[in-house]
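Design a sequence for this backbone.
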């Protein structure tokens, strides 16, 4: 990966003036941090605009703590997704400056410490059972500096609840629509707004829902243009993609 010459010059000047040590400078120039069980991408923020995100599921609590410690040497913002209560409690014991958002299964930099964008995105979910995925999407975007407005329990079985908020939804620049069952809400929203819609099927539903596969196929087959479909229960992906759009909008 090519490095920004001005950043390298600033780094060398910091070493020269004894602001940082040679070891710290070498660490900042490294491509990744070798932890044995993981190679931590130290330049993700430079390439993609946001640091490496930690997927907590399948990792031990000790591994998560070590990854966070590595990332904090190079980044000010931390995001851990799919982390359960036991792991979150352990992480906060070692990194008390982070916050746990239990409904979203997320540990991250406290949201009140992050400056938010001028434009906002709308996060909608069809029913209360979809809230964990909706919150995963919303908090992911907020950690990335995006203003979020939430519109929950606005499914098509009581569609008047959606229409009560439609003007605020239209004024957003991206909509994320979270739904299980047959996933009809994303098509309805897609037909009412003039901005991109990210649809996230959830695994919520009865037998023929097939753990979200029916919802996924329904959303993919939507007749409403401008709708992109994420994987089942992938609130993180929707929040990340929406944040990228807002960041491009505000940084151009």
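Sequence:
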């Amino acid at each position: 990966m090519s490095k920004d010459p001005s950043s390298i010059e600033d780094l060398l000047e910091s070493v020269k003036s004894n602001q940082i040590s040679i070891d710290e400078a070498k660490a900042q120039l490294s491509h990744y941090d070798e932890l044995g069980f993981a190679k931590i991408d130290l330049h993700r923020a430079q390439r993609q605009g946001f640091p490496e995100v930690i997927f907590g599921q399948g990792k031990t609590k000790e591994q998560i703590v070590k990854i966070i410690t590595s990332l904090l040497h190079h980044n000010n913002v931390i995001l851990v997704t799919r982390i359960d209560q036991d792991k979150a409690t352990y992480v906060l014991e070692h990194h008390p400056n982070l916050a746990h958002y239990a409904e979203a299964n997320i540990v991250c930099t406290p949201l009140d410490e992050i400056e938010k964008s001028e434009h906002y995105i709308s996060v909608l979910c069809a029913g209360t059972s979809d809230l964990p995925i909706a919150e995963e999407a919303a908090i992911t975007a907020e950690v990335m500096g995006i203003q979020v407005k939430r519109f929950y329990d606005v499914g098509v079985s009581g569609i008047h609840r959606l229409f009560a908020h439609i003007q605020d939804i239209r004024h957003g620049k991206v909509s994320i629509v979270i739904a299980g069952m047959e996933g009809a809400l994303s098509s309805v929203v897609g037909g009412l707004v003039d901005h991109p819609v990210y649809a996230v099927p959830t695994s919520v539903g009865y037998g023929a829902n097939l753990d979200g596969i029916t919802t996924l196929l329904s959303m993919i087959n939507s007749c409403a243009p401008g709708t992109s479909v994420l994987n089942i229960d992938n609130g993180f992906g929707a929040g990340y993609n929406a944040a990228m759009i807002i960041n491009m909008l505000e940084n151009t």
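Residues 92 and 98 are 6 Å apart (CA to CA).
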